[in-house]
Amino acid sequence: MRLDQYEWSRNPRGLHVKNALITPLTHSHWTETHMGWAKLVDSAGEYVDDAATFLSMGITPIVRLYEPRFGASPFNARMRERMDAHISVGSKWFELYNEPNLGIEWPGGVNIDWRNHDGIIRPMMDNWLVWAEYTISRGCYPGFIALAEATPDALAATRWMEAFLNYLEENHRGRMTAVLANGAYCATHPYILNHFYQEQPGGGPASVRPPEQQNAREGGWHFEYPYDPFQQQNDPGRTVQGGTELTPHGDPVGLTAMGRLFNQLCAERFGSQAIPVVGTEGGVWPLPWDGPQQPDRRYPPYDRNNHPHATVAMFEWSARQAPPWFFGLSVWKDDEYFEQLPATVNLLREIEPVYKNVPPIEVMGSGYERYLDTPEVIPVRPGPGPVHGEADFHMVILAPGLETRWFFDTAQAYWNTFRPIVTTRTDYIQFFTQEQSLAITVITPPELIDEMTEAIRVPFPQVWFDLIIADDQANVAEIFNSRVRDGLRFG
To answer: pTM above the 0.85 mark?
Structure first.
């Protein structure tokens, strides 16, 4: 995919709902303030109608599938039903897990630490990847997991992101590459504190206006923390990954910081070039309803008077100056803005949004098949290598005319048991390298047997080819059920 092929409003402004189960929503809160994103937290399918309404208004919903203290649990049938309902009205952007580096998202007794490989990293990544592949098979966009932008050692967002992506590279490189290439995005939670400023007129990029002089209708705003000139003047060399003695676990607390980290790590590990990033909650926070806020004493404070200007400027900076992969932010949250910050709401009403011009940049680079220890592109034959014993990966490919929902309705027990990749696209095969073997189960009506066989076996002769003829849904269901009973992935 290219960046410009993702479907969304192109308006970086967004607003998060108050909570789950608060419906029907006051849709005018989004239209009056010219929002382009609506972040929904769906626990029982309650926001399906709202999602349809937002789409009819030109506002793009992002749906988090919420379960309390979900931890690293697998995507289940109940969640799939809710997700399918949202897909049926046109929703495309989804999230599954949320801030796993905080204890509130886990059942009791779990060691919340990025070094807890077997208890957290491995099961969460295995289960996320299965869900992401299902999401892509439905033509939708799976969000990589948003982390709380914490810095203490065990909770450090940078270390969690590194642990997640290291595991995927070492264990599921081909599958993750295919997911990135076909619709994934990174969800972030940039609660940016007071890590922004506006330049003094004529004072240069590291000069700082006092809060009372900030004005959203004038230029000179900086939201690129920790890479802004003022920060680099104070602690030269600081990056989101660290880089200085003051940041041993990195500094992720900036509007685009975690998105930049995700893009950097994925470029190194999977050969990507520009993966979309959406802040699905955050903003200039803590909100200043009870007085000025200055969490970082080096930067100016903000209060009810300049918070409106900073918020509008943040959205406009996202459209005009942010990296092309940054698609905007849904601020936290509906009730707090409309009940506590009338000046911010009023300025959003007054100033029309700036839309983002998204360039046609390929998500994956031209050399995505390279490895870290080999800087040049490896001249290998496209596609997977030979099967020795059991294939490394298993993919179910549905012939034209068969939908992925049909497969899950017909073969739910089979999918729950064996968890294959399910898709309607044969071009996924090219993302597997010669070091990885692949078995493919092809489900096709009789009239397309020759076409599907030629489309797979000719260009990819080393795949294990397993054919099921879809002449009758009941017959197909029995084939898959018998495989489950016998413990056999293939017939």
So the answer is: no
